[in-house]
Amino acid sequence: MEGDTLPFQQAQTENGWGMSVVERIFERIEAFDTATVGTTQLIHKAHLRTYSIEKLRDILAKGGDLEKGFMKHMDMIREFQTIEGMTLMDSRDTFQTHSYTFAGIADVLLRFAEQVSGATGIPLVRLFGQSPAGFNTGDGDLENYYSRVNSLQERRLRRHIRWLLDISWRSLFGEPLPDDFTFEFNKLWEMSDVDRATMANNVVTALGTAVRDLGMPPAAALNDLRNISDVIGIGGSITDEDIEDAKAQWEEDEPETIPPPPFGDPVSKKPVGDSKPDRADRRWYLRWFTGQR
């Protein structure tokens, strides 16, 4: 692979090579790693304890028995803290605990993670495997990501894979690939069973309406149903013979013995009222007449 695409002039400088994928995301990964390590160090210091002893500096400065007594006292504190959970101390000593809050640190880590996600082009739910927060399920991000990967496959890989398959076919059989040869990349995003069933029902209903009300040939409907069978899960068993049979039945001529359908009401043969004037009837006055003239 050539790496990430560079502008034309820079690509010419790099002899046609693109930018390294690792180089593009290295700084973002390094920053995220630094933030993670810093957070880990804060966790170790989240619970700090202080023990105040009167004239501690004098004890350490004089050393000798005073210092030994102090160290023995500290060993006793560790022993009873481990076994009994008690802190033994003089009445004039002071023991305190200090705790830290981590409000805002999670947001900081999330921002660094989003930078890594943006640099790699992979959504958080896919890159780190963490569940989305709130009402977001992550399906939309994954669907967009898989659609992008599929478009990259079509744009960057299809032509090269076609060449490779053509070379392999010629090497094995000594002839070019058939004209109707094609291949499809494996789908990365699959619909749920509920969505697939809903889509199948909508497609079948739409095709049935088109055949019944719009005059769409049944053969065309069967062909469309078979073409989309890999998506909706039905129609894959439709064969070319089934389509040809439906086409032949649709194009069958009507029998000539059947009379043509009537259009409107037949014209009335009764004379209208204005065909009879007040005077005696004369045939050349009649505008509407039937029978003998």
Shape: elongated
SSE pattern, N- to C-terminal: HHEHHEHHHHHHH
| Number of domain units | 4
Instruction: List low-confidence stretches.
Output: none
Discrete helix count: 11
Instruction: Give the assembly state of these chains.
Output: single chain
Look at the structure and give the mean pLDDT.
80
Largest sheet: 2 strands, antiparallel
The N- and C-terminal alpha carbons lie at a distance of 97 Å
Judged by helices, strands and strand pairing, the structural class is mainly alpha
What share of the residues lie within helices?
Answer: 40-55%
Strand order of the largest sheet: 1-2
- Beta-strand portion reads under 5%
Number of strands: 2
| Radius of gyration over C-alpha positions, nearest whole angstrom | 44 Å
Provide an overview of this structure:
By secondary structure, the protein is mainly alpha-helical. The protein folds into four domains: about 25-45 and about 105-115, no CATH class; about 45-100; about 120-190, no CATH class; about 195-250, no CATH class. Helix content is about 55%, strand content about 5%. The chain has a two-stranded antiparallel sheet with strand order 1-2. It is elongated, with a radius of gyration of 44 Å. The protein starts with 7 loop residues before the first helix and ends in a 43-residue tail after the last helix. The mean pLDDT is about 80. This is Portal protein.
